[in-house]
Amino acid sequence: MDTKITEVTRRDIIDSIFLEEIELYGRLEEIEFLSRIWDLESLESFDGRFNNAEQDIWQHTVNNNDWPIDWIFDDPRFNLIRGDDETFLRFLCETIHPVVRQDIHEAQKLCELYNKHLKNDGYQIIEKGQISKKPIFKGQFIGTSILPGIPLVQELFSGIDDEYISKQLERMEKAINHDPELAIGTAKESGETCCKSILEECNIQFTKKEKLTKLVKLTVKQLELTPEDIPDKAKASDTIKNLLSNLATITQGIAELRNHYGTGHGKSNSSKGLQPRHAKLAVGAASTLIVFLSETHKHRKT
C-alpha cells in the first residue's frame, strides 16, 4: 500500500476544508457522491439493522442525521486517513469534478488548497482533461522540489536588499514541479544575476545581452579561485574554471532546449515539454554555481 501522503497532510487538508466551510459533496447527496468511488452495497454495515453500508449511511445521514459532518474521515471502511494515496487522491479529485462542483472557479480554488498541502509529500492534483469544457482532475506524484543548493543561495543573498533576487529564488523553487520551463529560465536568470552583481562590484564592464557562459567566464577571471599555498596552483585553478564553466553550460544548455522542446514557443499541442527532472538539473547546476561564486567573492573581499 503506497502511503507517501502522511496523516499530517491529510488532516491539514480536512481541517482546511471545514475551516473554509466548503460543502464537501458539492451539489450531490452523500450516498450519491460516495457511490462514485465505492460500491456501498458491497461494504458492511455497522448498524445491525441493515445489510450494507449504503443503508447504514442513509439511516444516519438522511433519516436520523445523527453522524457528525466529518464522519467519512473516521470511518474505517473508507480509510481515508491512513489508507493508500490513490484512494485519498481520487476522493479529493471527485470533490472538484464538474458533476459534483459546478462552479469552475470554486473547483480551482479548492484544488489550490489541496495542492498547498500535498506538495509537502510530493503530490499534486492536475488537470487531466475536460468534460463539457470543464476540467477534470487526477493526482500525480511529482516528487519534492527542494534541492540542496537553494537554501544556501537564499542564505547568501539574505543580506542583500534586492526584491528581484528574492523573487527569482522563490519562483525557481516553486516552479520545478508544476512549471519546469519557468524554473529552468529562472535558474539561468539567477546565475546571470549573481555574475552581474559580482562584476558590478568589481567595476567590470559587460553587455546586457551576454550569455551566462560568458558572464561566468568574466566573473571567474576576477576571483581568486584557489589558495596561494597549494602545489600547482595554476593547474588547480584551471580545473575549477572548467568545472564552473561546465555548470554554466548545463544551465545555459537546458534553457536553450526550451526553444526546441518547449510547448510555449510555437510548438504543436502534442509537443512534449521539458520535465521536472530537467528543471532539477538546471536548478541544481545553477545553485551550485551561484553558491561557489558568491562564497568565493565574499572570501576574496575579506
TrEMBL record:
This is Abortive infection protein-like C-terminal domain-containing protein. InterPro entries: Abi-like_C, AbiJ-NTD3. It comes from Crocosphaera watsonii WH 8501. It comes from the Bacteria. Residues 4-170 form the AbiJ-NTD3 domain. Residues 214-293 form the Abortive infection protein-like C-terminal domain. It holds the Pfam family AbiJ_NTD3.
